[in-house]
Amino acid sequence: MPDVTLAPHPDRLLPADPGVRAIARGLLDSVAGLPIISPHGHVPAHWLADDVPFTDPTSLLITPDHYVTRLLHADGAELSTFGVGEGPLTEQQARAAFRAVCARWDVVRGTPVRLWFEAQLVDLFGVALRPSAGTADRIYDAVAAALATEAFRPRALYARFGLEVLATTDDPCDDLAAHARLRDDPTWTGRVVPTFRPDRYLETARDGWNADVDRLGEVSGVEVGDYAGFVRALEARRAHFVAHGAVSTDHSHRDARTDPLDPAEASRLYAAARRGQVTVTEATALRRHLVGEMARMSCDDGLVMTLHPGVWRDHHRPTYERYGADVGTDIPVAVEYTDALRPMLSRYGTHPGFQVVLFTLDETVFSREIAPLAGFYPSVYAGAPWWFLDAPDAIRRYRAAITESAGFAKTSGFVDDTRAFCSIPARHDLARRIDAGFVAGLVAEHRLDEEEAYAVLHDLVVTNPRKAFKL
Amino acid sequence: MPDVTLAPHPDRLLPADPGVRAIARGLLDSVAGLPIISPHGHVPAHWLADDVPFTDPTSLLITPDHYVTRLLHADGAELSTFGVGEGPLTEQQARAAFRAVCARWDVVRGTPVRLWFEAQLVDLFGVALRPSAGTADRIYDAVAAALATEAFRPRALYARFGLEVLATTDDPCDDLAAHARLRDDPTWTGRVVPTFRPDRYLETARDGWNADVDRLGEVSGVEVGDYAGFVRALEARRAHFVAHGAVSTDHSHRDARTDPLDPAEASRLYAAARRGQVTVTEATALRRHLVGEMARMSCDDGLVMTLHPGVWRDHHRPTYERYGADVGTDIPVAVEYTDALRPMLSRYGTHPGFQVVLFTLDETVFSREIAPLAGFYPSVYAGAPWWFLDAPDAIRRYRAAITESAGFAKTSGFVDDTRAFCSIPARHDLARRIDAGFVAGLVAEHRLDEEEAYAVLHDLVVTNPRKAFKL
Amino acid sequence: MPDVTLAPHPDRLLPADPGVRAIARGLLDSVAGLPIISPHGHVPAHWLADDVPFTDPTSLLITPDHYVTRLLHADGAELSTFGVGEGPLTEQQARAAFRAVCARWDVVRGTPVRLWFEAQLVDLFGVALRPSAGTADRIYDAVAAALATEAFRPRALYARFGLEVLATTDDPCDDLAAHARLRDDPTWTGRVVPTFRPDRYLETARDGWNADVDRLGEVSGVEVGDYAGFVRALEARRAHFVAHGAVSTDHSHRDARTDPLDPAEASRLYAAARRGQVTVTEATALRRHLVGEMARMSCDDGLVMTLHPGVWRDHHRPTYERYGADVGTDIPVAVEYTDALRPMLSRYGTHPGFQVVLFTLDETVFSREIAPLAGFYPSVYAGAPWWFLDAPDAIRRYRAAITESAGFAKTSGFVDDTRAFCSIPARHDLARRIDAGFVAGLVAEHRLDEEEAYAVLHDLVVTNPRKAFKL
Is ipTM > 0.95 here? Predict the structure, then answer.
């Protein structure tokens, strides 16, 4: 098989109809110079705080990105082939893993992984070769050579990407030392904000919960012997996050329910959990109550809530046991928002300090629940299409399903939610192209004036995420 | 910001592809002269019976239309800003509310509210100005001036709109006096039909149910002391509606179940409800039984059933407590039809006198349940996309999801379901345009001959609603 | 009404946009000569084994095809009108039924039934007349004349259709004699494979289950007095199927759950079922366990599992009582796969011998569950859009919903699943056209190179079904 040269078309991902495409191209050009706002993601803060060079192409581009590895696993390869669970890779391991990816490159056809990865190669590393068995080593070498240069250090990339803000996702007990170092570093001009992710502390029947809460007590300096202390400890950690620049909290449980318990019952269940005697049903009730408490705290401290429910984590048990979490075996389940959020929204839905962004992997709630909620409650924003849905056709379905009931103003703007730092520009570029095409379609059908379309696209890229995440 | 002149494009809402658009334009032109059939809606009959002039632009166009006010509320405004819950408005209040709407006009971009409202301004009132802070007063004045003329009295508008029939939605105890006045008025040549909406009488655990049933007994002249009497009273009121021209009943409960109870159990639960001792579970069982009874009655009296399930009414409790129902805080929930309707359809689904039109706000049932049901049962019609779904992209999804399993013949035709009288032509025009575009797409892909496409579009506009609603 | 000449356009079903269409046309041409692979369907094997001529147009084209008769029933006709439940038809009955279909032909506009049926008339029978009251007799006569010729015997049609393999669906107790005759016939060069469909044996609370199991014991020669024997009997029949060329098993229960029971509990429930004392809840638990057992057996004998859950069979009870099963009154219900398959996939999901193809009538699981599962588990394939969904717009939705998370490689290829033998080429042609259009759209948007698009379409037509069904 001869080498295939990558030559990304300037009109890629724009609608095929020539008239619509022409409008979309103009719209896209108009936002080309705007910064990237990344209000939710998983890049480690210490990369930027310490600005250490990346070690090798595989550890940077492949191993941590379960978008890539899951598709290759589905084709029959072991995850370890790609370095997953292998710890730091030798050069030999890294190269072998990279070869294994390139040799199976056909399986990513039609997926956004293909688009993001090839965009990285061309735009970032200047390597215009499609991955294949024949090109793997050349690509590896070129990327490795680039990574050895100053221009590919994390801070240089942050600047090159045009990032205005980058959010991390952090454990409530995290001291946020890397964030502090960045804050206190006079040579650093970017903005990296932590995100408060308390899931593990709210699931009281989970193995290890008691130890985690002990630690929460230590770290916060608050006595967590009873429920009131536990709540105060969480409040203290939120304050710590706010002091380090946090703008939001993140919550990902099986369901989105927010039913409150009366205080005595919450205390009773907490005490049972501390004794290791809470049932699964009780723990679920307590978790739902605590999510509602998070909303109450948001009214006070202003942190935006983001909800990412409806994922069956670690679906394939043997894979979890061997490789741990976040390796591609999380599978979505149906989500319900209308009934689930009613207790929370009846209490806080019109509170001036409260904002909540609703994400979903269950597209059925776009038009049925999220858009109607965001189109009534001033506090509710429709989160961008997330995870499996941050792809061209899925983004189009999202816009088509959300806009007619909620307009553009109540959508969050694109969220990359990625562990793959170098894919951030490609992901935002893809989203901008699809949004430009969607808005151009409205213009072509005379549903929006062209001048307005420019304003809408500008808002989607910068105004909306700033507003939804209080940036 | 300079004024923006509204110049609705003749091809608005038609597909962007030039070839498809040309076909669609021809189709659209072919139905331009057809009447509007509005078999389900919420315009008060007394407007037409009494033909009193409308008071002011806000009370007519804004305050009663929760499609508009909910979006502005989502942007952070109080509903009272727009006159909701304020009673009759002074000229000063009406003008201030109108200004508040115009100043926030950007938030309706991309929604059908924008299209309907601007179409009203241009086509009905001759005001070719986009709402904005700068144009609000001029628009208000022009509309107010128009409303003061004879040409904008309700009956003149009814004629101008080309309405063939307009349905109201009415309480079973309503005396339908306005309908009677219209029927007996020799100068009235239109057709306004009542719709029997018994929801409140079927929810036996509801506050106030007993008082409502007492009144039902008085109005019907039937003793409602026991279950059999209650059923006879409902039958009597249905007969009253039939005598006043009703063609359909309307039902909107949380779910669509129709499980029958045996007569003794129904009697027992009714008696418990009359004593105020029915549980919520029992009341739900009785309501499901009673919906099935409505189907039985429809076989006898010929009234078409329409089902509009799956809405969480008054989701934001504080808004309901301050402003009451129907102000934009109703949020959809998932619906199930296949299992829910089986008891009813096994009994009455092939009865020659029975027809039922299924509406949904949960799009997932379009292809999964409604189209298969309408594609087998002669009695079942797929209701037009409703409420949050009566918008361009949603109507396209509806047609794409329904047609392949149920064809065109088993769809109800467009239903505007509106409280906003002046928006009726714009709503039907939007639906005709989208349907023309959909059918044109089939022609362009050689899935339908062009001659047939003309017949199909004609049917969708007039034949189908006449048949589905027995008009 | 004048006759309408059928002139199928060479570009039918390709996208309307001229640029995309040109790409699609090239793709379509490239697969025109490829064989048809039909790995799941309902054509009887004895038709081909015995090669007996078809009797009349109605018995071949109308009566057994519930896709056709259900739509005419929905228009108000009795199923008996079309020969359903009437047994062998006289010439007079057959002609009258055919006339009744043609007279109501307008109701199939917009459905794939129309496209398939007319394609059969033109391409297979050479009858270029649209069905109508006026053309019914001429079409009937022309088709009847063709059926009397050698060229329309089953084996001749098999060859003419370019079938590479045709699967039947068979009861575990079936002796597969027709398959054996074909296997042993030196003049037969095709491939007809049986499919093991054990549903009735796994539903232990079903009327007649005990008698069926008695027969299973007799046919297998295995004592089925206890649970272990029952399992061995099923294994024996699977071996019998494998020996007759089977490549897959088929399972269609209300849900897709696979929760295992411990052996003692399974034995206890089986014993209760044999005594006729199993409850519905127990029977459901045992059935879910047994579906998991089928997966275990698949790891051993290599038969591919296909799951077709989520249908309410015989929804209209009176129709079932009069006409029996499979006459168009099966209605889909919602399906859940993520949680339901977890027990099975945690055990067997990465077993090298295991493959499972997931079908659905509930489109919501395409992007939410099936694509994520197929994009992680090497054993899982996304089944082609099935039954109500094997139509142009539904196939497009399927590709758009599946591809971005699972790519093309993990999709099964088209499955016609039909009882209407003569419609097989038309069904596969429709699917190829829609897939060509979808892939062309990716090329037009520069999401796939054109050379790759040719490879993808080739794979979808032949490579994928061969791989998914181990052909």
Answer: yes
